[in-house]
UniProtKB/TrEMBL annotation:
Coiled coil: none annotated. It is a multi-pass membrane protein. Residues 364-873 form the TonB-dependent receptor-like beta-barrel domain. This is TonB-linked outer membrane protein, SusC/RagA family. Residues 49-156 form the TonB-dependent receptor plug domain. It comes from the Bacteria. The keyword Zinc does not apply. Belongs to the TonB-dependent receptor family.
Amino acid sequence: MKLQLSLLTAVLFFLGGQTVEAQKAKRDTVQEEHAIDEVVVVAYGSQKKETMVGSSTEVKAKQFADRPISSIGQALDGASAGVKVSTGTGQPGSSPSIQIRGIGSYGITTSPLYVVDGTVYTGSLAAINPNDIASFNILKDAASTSLYGSAAANGVIIITTKSGRKGKDSFNFGMSTGYVQRSIPEYERVNVYQYYPLIWEAIRNGRMTSVPTSTLAQANTYATTQLISGVLKTNVFNVADNQLVVDGILNPNAELRYSDLDWQRPLMNTGFRQNYELNYSGGSNTTTYFTSVGYTNETGYLIKSDFERFTARLKVDSQVKSWLKLGTSISGVSSNGNNSVEGVDSNSSYINPYRWTRTMGPIYSPYAHDPVTNANLYDNAGNIMYDAGSGRGADAAAGRNVIQETLLNKDLSKNYYIISRAYAEVKVDPYLTLSTNVGYDIRNNRRSTYGNKIIGDAAPGGSAEKYSITEQTFTWNQLLNYKRKFGQHNFEYLLGHENYKFTYEYLYGYKKGQIVDDNDELINFVTPTTLTSRTDNYRKEGVFSRLNYDFNSKYLLSGSIRWDGSSRFSKDVRWDSFWSLGAGWRIKGEEFLKNSGLISELKLRGSYGEVGNDRTDSYYMYKSTYSLGYNNAQEPGILFGFLADPTITWETNKQSDIGIDFGFLNNRISGSVEYYKRVTEDLIFQVPIPVSAGVPDNNISRNVGTMYNRGFEFSLNADVIRNENFTWNINANASTLKNQVTELSNGITEIINGTKKVSVGHSIYDYWLRQWYGVDPADGSPLFLVADAFANTTAADIRTVNGTKVTTNFNKAKYDYSGTAIPDLFGSFGTSITYKQWALSAMFTYQLGGKTYDSNYAALMSSYSQGGALSTDILNRWTTPGQITDVPALNSSTYTSSNAASSRWLISSDFITFRQATLSYSFNTETLSQLGLAGFKILVSGENLWSKTARKGLEPAQAFNGTTSNRYTPARIITIGFNVSF
């Protein structure tokens, strides 16, 4: 169809009060059909993609609609260059951590800002049903984010929910079901037959070190007699303790008295996932509507970990008058579940099931056995009895049983959400639009924990805790938008004002002394130990403006500014401005390329701007505070809690970006190349102050530092084959990142925190560790480079090996920088194939370079384990003079040096993960129409299908800073399901 060309504008859809428009045809003198312009959602509005000068990535619903994900955060992994994801845990309903374009801060949040349907969202991502989302847009540079001002330093993710469309009503139903398994394999560990001789060897070698006059025979005898009674406490074989290991050899006649020695099997098995979705949408010429209900139930592979969510949503948009449009949406969410132990915060806790099933020696059974018959013991109710651990070594959690405690303890959550949005849009004239958006969210999180009275921290009385947290956010903005075209000159001007209010209410109670069984309500406990509450308030106000200009979609300019005031800071410094300038040249629009068949898109763009970060841990950073509750009987007491710097203010990000977008062969090949640099100034650090000042923790938070992140981003998308019956698409993205601290003021030269040291000229993720040298081939001693202070001293623990001064004493080891957790390259690649009704998609994520400090592995490499598990790598230990190995001799006298934190435990962070895949078949619509169906699709989908790392058991993507913890590793989920439309 040919058109008499004039500027015609059609509203394609209206989402969250943001008008997304598309031109049907461009002004031209040639009568031909034109493609509808692509538009994307941006801050407080929408824009034609070809005129954008900012850096953003849009991901549409069809790219994640069929995946078995509980949180939209999971869909961010691999979605865009420059976006790094720390994988979520295996806890059902968990969400990953996200960093956009590097490390935005050291002491406060590095997470992006989330905006849902035009207003800020601070709730859990798991509360948003992924099937209700139409798209999300990742804004990465200042030109894209500056209108969000003091909260936009770490990027912005705009989530747009689904709306109804004019025309025939649509009814859709989908369901899927599948299984949940562990995706990261366990570290390989020695078995029960290998274990006893290894510990015997450590005792024997230690005896010869501590008592040099001992003969080999005497040391052997000592090790044999001490192995069970003195160290391991338990002998699971049917031979006498003093005959179990003789001269380093396990008694060949030894047979196991029982074999139920696996601590992981009772706790970790196969979970189950099911999901149901139902939505109904449609609309008339004046009103559109979308309503949905959803149900998700997922049980994790760890027992007593699950997530259940009910969602219901209604969205209505109505063109009430030709000049007035109104809309509203409301979502109700109810979720509940059993929480597993948080491995990061409880890394070494006795109730951490990931730690104690991994590090428990292979000689201990979790169950009680008859000392004569060796049979399992059962109580009067027929329940199997557990071993409380009185007969275990020092490294085997004596007196505890993580399986029994996991079964008896409780940690339950019930969460209720209301997420509501409303807008009004008044068309004053063809060019001027006034609109207002209101968002109100309320979240009530209720959590109950129970500590059993039989074994563990709460024994013998039992304990109960109750948490109630209510969060309310209210956002109200008013927008004036003016769009005008003068010939080939296009202007858009936005003026806005926004109020934001956040209220946090916390109530906590803790009681001990359970009265009757099977009741964990507080009324069933005798002694109130803690009862406390608090209310926090946070307010923010902003005024903002943006001007976009383009000349015939060729020469592009954009500028924005926002003035923000934050209640986190004192009135003298709480207001500041954030701004951006951007420009672009759409070279494709020039006459010499307009008719090019090879080049279908070519745009050069750049921007510079400043955005902020006010999301500190405290809502009152400028106020010195006191802690209540330190009472002496009836006498009230308070304690100095926090010393504030009244001049403290937000961190500022100065961001620059330059990029080129390209497309060839009618966009069969498209992509972009970008370079960015973001400089964070006024970094908030904890500055040490003298102990004599009497200040808690001996520090004060101040704006004292500067650092930068910079890198390149590459994105490529190509239709290798594209015809009526068959398409094959490949896509990939890659990113680099360089982070460096450039200033630490106020006399600070370094800040050491765990395995890292922050100093000028280094990244905040650079390792600062003792320098491991290796193993002395002469005697198997662990060796470290000697610190300069001891290099010229003479002592028995300092020696020269291969011309290098080293020490066997870790206390004299040299500290130095030892690489970084930041990779050289990270990203994703994938493919999608369609053949007639068949469709297949797959995505891989990867990382090259960087190092991980594998403390989990270190715990399995002790040179003297007293009941703890051992890696199979311990079999490569030094045993013979002249032997070349990287595993020191087993030795109960020198093991503290062997096991010390050092560069020994660093390993490559390289990985590749088969992140997700989906295979589907859509039945022919002509056939379905005879059955009254509009569509029917069956599918199989999987998440976290496979990974390759430098060491079996390693999970290098679990933390941005490169450390590991005993945590719930991610789950592999494979589901089968169908979608039907009427």
